[in-house]
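Q: Structure for this?
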Amino acid sequence: MKNQPPNLYPPSLAIRLLRWFCEPALLEDVEGDLEELFSNRLKNGRRRAKWLFYWDVLLLFRPGIIREIRIFKGQTNHIMFKNYIKIAWRNAMRYKGYTALNLLGLIVGMASSILILLWVQDERNVNAFHTNGDQIYQVFRNMRQSNGQVNTGTSIPKPLGDLVKSEYTEVAEVAWLSWSLPMDIARDNQAIEESGRFASPEVLTMFSFELLLGDSQTALNSPSGLLISERVAEKHFGPNWRNEAMGQVFKVEEQFDVQVTGVFRSPGTESTLDFEWLLPAQAYFAANPWVEDWGNGAFETYLLIPDTDKVQAVADKIRMEIKKHTQGNPNAGDEELIIHRFSDTYLYSAFDNGVVSGGRIEYVRIMTIVAIFILLVACINFMNLTTARSSRRSKEIGLRKVMGAARKSIRTQFYLEAFLLAGCAVAVSAVVVAFLLPLFNELVGKSLVLNFEAPETWFFLMGLIFGVGLLSGTYPALLLPTFNVIQSMKGGVVKQSGFASYFRKGLVVFQFAISTLLIIGTTVIYRQIDFVLNKDLGLNKDNLLAVSLEGDLASRLETYKNELLRLPQVTHVSGASGNPLNYGRSTSSANWEGKNPNEGYEVNVMLTDEHFIETTGMEILAGRSFSSQLQDSTNFIINEVAAELMGFEDPIGKKLSFWGIDGKIVGVVKNFHMRDLYEPIAPLIITCISPSNSSIVLIRTNENTSDALAAIEQVTQSLNPGEDFRYQFIDQAYAESYEAEQTMRTLANLFALVSIVISTLGLLGLASYSAEQRSKEIGVRKVHGASVIQVLLLLSKDYGKLILMAFVLAVPFGYYFMQNWLNQFEFREALNPVVFLFAGVIVMSIGVLTVAAKSYQAASVNPVKSLKEE
Amino acid sequence: MGKYSIGEFEEVLLLTVAILYDNAYGISIKEEIEDRLNRKVSVGAMRTALSRLEKKGFLQSEFGEATAIRGGKRKRFYKVTPYGKKALEEVMENRKKLWEAIPSVAFDFKAL
């Protein structure tokens, strides 16, 4: 063979391939056969022979020829793993401070991200327990206003459901469910007010609410049936409710009798549909004939569409149904119907112009990103600390290489170390999380658990070990085996490549950029929430109490008000049809001078009495307030938005009518926020035509609110014995409506802090390392007369630059993300450059202080100490 | 097929190995089949079939001398075992029985 010209050899690539996959026992003669064949074929041309050789090798790639797959073939190096673990342990113990720093960073990072991801998972689990969740669609209506805005609502005309049920073949079931209503559920004269809903029988079959007693197929079929929650059953029947509840008679709202046909498990926080009782929808429909009109919005309507391919067809068909059926009705609005998958309604609940625009999903996304960022920052720490201190291990690596270790086995060693450390960190953080969960739950208002019995938890923790191990171990595992043997054996510092040190600096920049970003985000969120909570809402919400008018107290409103006004703590009292800061009762029948009859507007109507303006502390901009001396029952006050909408330059005295009441405008009140600050202010008419229609009284008290509350309760109870005293402070209710945002604020604060802590830990490690490495240099400089300050500057300068770069990097991203977030608020704080500066200063000062503290330590060492050893 | 399960290609291989007697190794078998039966044989298909036959006990093999033309690799020579012979005989018997059972008119195509 040797005497053949080299290009007459068979293609070596093919042979290598063959040798790789061929069963060793067969290899020799197979290869021989192929070579013989090849030399025979050479007669017909070399190129052809080569191609045929490749072809034959490929054809040999078949079972029977391919060798068995063995992961550990023959000799194994299991024995070395023991050594790796031993050395890892010794190293960890030798540099305890460094190990602690490294572990602490990982633990803090992991624990935080586990907490966040638990929260994210919980958010995603809301409404996920319905077996058919993906097939249930809720109907929404988009009402187009003449000013171009679209209001999206869930209150759907009942005939739509009937129509769908009888004519839509794609829809298997239709369910009606009312809004949540507080009602008295009484047994043996013991009344308990609970919130619940009216529901059609399909609600129990379509959704997966669990019945503890009763049959879900029939429980809501009888018009006199009643389902109560486990909790209500326990309240009425005690612990033995299972045997006593069924068939018992309750009186609802002191009007009609119903019989218990079932008990259900209370839908907890994982359900957005909440109720403590269910009554048959047909009872409501029978008592309220108005629901049969296409013009009236009634219950929420849910459709079960089993075939996902048909969803679009249903959506197309249903769109124009209301318009079609209200044609010719003068009050008919311009509206369309849309359907939205029920399992998405929790996370995607915000509608912008009739189209889903997000909702809580944004917070879920933000938090997921934060979790990943924090984990990344922790991993970077690990990478940095390991590679920076790798010269400590250089002798070990050199010796291993001399003793015959391949790069591969050194790589294995450092991967193993990373995985070991990640494993320790995960174990500790799981324990930390278990301890912190109660606190965290209180903070976010959830009941999260880290369930160690569920296999998912273990998968997740294993995945975390694997992910973090890989992420943090890869760079050291790739870098360290490349050390030159002689250099590392000679001792001292292995000069690391330029790339390595740039890479490390890049990581520091990245780390601090993330921290800066998180601080910017936190500050913006904090300021916006602050802005929301402290905004001048157009009325004085402090010391303002809303007491709901229970029973027939509304008909004795005058007496009640006079009694209240006699209290020394009470300054003003007024009836109203709702909390002015959370109000949405509207009419499309409003008419005014010069209104284009073709245009429809939804205008809010607030029913009050003459003292409303002074009680709430609103400001009259033009005209006058109501007055008890003047006959004001057909005089109206409108807000600025309404005045603008109606197009009056001077609205005072203009004619205005709605609900068939003709009257005129006497005043314009300054805009106040009837909805949350995500939405613009809506037009409003305030009337004092029938104070007895009030559902609450607004009470302005003096500073001593707790005293006032007690006195008010006493007056209310004496006038209204046997009824609940239900009240809320307007400012508290307002703050509570931003609970989600406040939670986000707390979380964002917390995790920005975590990220900066981790980054600082990393920086601390790096700084102390570089100070140590340069200890001789510092000694020489000091001997030559450098002052401590000069050395300090020398050491801190580098890191200062890095942090500055991180800041520059973080600003544009921060600006972009936060502007996006702010844009969803109709009323928002402008993005202030001070915020960025603030974040920069914080990160900068923390970073520089850390480095300086470490450097000072190094700089103040007596040079004799660092120089005496050589 | 009786207790010996043998495919058509396997049968051809066994017979060829028997024909070649003491010169039956990979390439010679391949060429012999290609010459006599005028069909293409791929190295891969032949190799798997040969190892399969050896595993079943119809063939046995041993290494021969190394030759220069094979890059110093030895040849693997195959021999039919008595068990293999039995299998071949049975296959032939079965075929014969089937032939004999065919009524003479079946192949009398002129009658059609």
